[in-house]
Structure formats: C-alpha cells, structure tokens
Amino acid sequence: MLIGMAKKPLREFFEKHVDGTAEKMKVADVKLHLCNLTNIVAVVLGLENEKTHKVHITARALKHLYDKKPAEEFFQLLDGLDEVTRLPLHVYENKKGKRGAFCLVGEYGGAEYICAIEVVNAQFLGEKDEFIQKNAIELQIATGFRNRDKNYLNKCTLLWSWRDGNPPS
To answer: What is the pLDDT of residues 107-129, one digit of tens each?
Structure first.
C-alpha cells in the first residue's frame, strides 16, 4: 500500500473481524455498509425506496469467502467487490436454488466477477447506521467469485445490461 493512501473500508472490516481466524471459526455478527446501488440498478431490482439502495456485507459472508476462495481471488474480491456491486455491467436474476436473488456482474483487475446479492429483512445494522426499521428490507452480499465458466450465466435471466441501458423486453 502506498504511504498516505487510506485503506478501503472493506479491507479494514476484514482485518478487524476476519483476518487470521481459523477455518470455520465463528465471527462477530456485524455488518458493513459496502456501497449504494445506482438508481437504474435499484429500479431494475424493483427497489424504489432510497434506503434500499444500500448494500451491506456481513462478517460471516466475508469469512465464508476467506475460507473458500484462493488467496489471490479473495484479495481481488476484497479490493473490487464494492466496485463490481456499485457499477455492474450486467444484472441477472440468479438461478433457482442459489443463494442470492440477483447477480451483479462486473470487471475488476482484468477479470469478470459475479456478486450475488440477497434481499433480507433488516435487523441490527450496526452502531453507525441509522437504517434500523421494523419490516424494512436490506440488500446483503451472499457471495462473490471470479467467473471462470463462460456458460455460468446462460441459465440466469438477464434483467439489465450497461450496453443498452434498458431492461430486456
């Protein structure tokens, strides 16, 4: 890291709650506000309330990635997950039976990454987050990974692509 450069919040969150933990070890039940969706992506997902534009990641989800991904892929995700989520090139409805209702697809570091997000009822979001409401919804990162299978998204429904800017008819 360059001197004077601030660490990304996700890396700080990782270092505080996950780094150095043993495989399958439980971690604190805490969340981080990762980023906000763009207005167009929120509309494509059917989320019109501005509070639902926020995307969170839990220490548990980050721990799962830490335990399951090769180190190089994990650290690319750690540095690029917010960008892939905030500025996806494509938005898909995820395959049936998979965790996360939607897949946001973007590029980072010269590779294509898929970030699955799920819609959950909001509960405790942390000390600094004012978005604690009964029956509110929240977007959370379910998982993320480098797309190594060019056919992976073929069985998913394309909802929106940056190329044409409009949802498919």
So the answer is: 999 999 999 999 887 554 444 44
